[in-house]
Amino acid sequence: MKTLLSGLMILGLACQVAQAACQREATDFNYPSQRLDEALQQLAHSTGCPVTVDLTPFADQKVPALHGRYTPEEALWQLIKGTGLEGYPTADGLEANTQEQDAVGAKAQAVRSLIDTQKGSITKAKQQHYEQQIKEVETSAAALARQQGFISAGARSSFHRSLDGMLNELKR
């Protein structure tokens, strides 16, 4: 229940702050180490940028202190580094989720399903090769999200290009 309330508090705060315009310019931040939900509330309050996030899987997770000059988006990335969340700007504010990792996972599953349907026509070694490539893409996406707090458009494109290449090979 505490986790659900944390997520709702962020969303509730987002609604209140939405009345004030999201300030996109760099600002000085001086946040102590605290729970992720508290840090995101503080970010929303100090920037006027509502933060949309489901904190259910991140209950009570601590984030390091945030000191320095950042745009709201950069501050979000700093706060969520190491959590596995990806931070993105929205028209009204900020959002943290796992959308790109989920998209990579869904496409990876499509490749796995196609491999399963073709087990009689491709060698065991080729199946293992595909599985290794799939795992590398999934692992890289998760690692980038943890290291950076976001997945860049270039990395996103590379992940999907790799998976699409495998799909195209398997469909031949």
Structure commentary:
With 172 residues, this protein is of the alpha+beta class. The protein folds into 2 domains: 2-97, 3-Layer(bab) Sandwich (Phage tail protein beta-alpha-beta fold); 99-171, no CATH class. 58% of the residues lie in helices and 15% in strands. The strands form 3 sheets. Strands 3-7-6 form a 3-stranded mixed sheet. Strands 1-5 form a two-stranded antiparallel ribbon. Strand 6 and strand 7 (94-97) form a beta hairpin. Helix 2 runs antiparallel to helix 3 and helix 4 (99-117) packs antiparallel against helix 5. The N and C termini lie far apart (50 Å). Mean pLDDT is 89; it is low at 1-9 and 12-18.
Major sheet description: 3 strands, mixed
> H/E order of the elements?
HEEHEEEHEEHHH
Our measurement of the CA-to-CA distance between the termini, rounded to an integer number of angstroms, reads 50 Å
Strand residue percentage: 5-15%
pLDDT < 50 stretches: 1-9, 12-18
* Rg (C-alpha, Å): 19 Å
The CATH architecture of the largest domain would be 3-Layer(bab) Sandwich
Instruction: Domain count, please report it.
Output: 2
Strand order of the largest sheet: 3-7-6
Helix tally equals 6
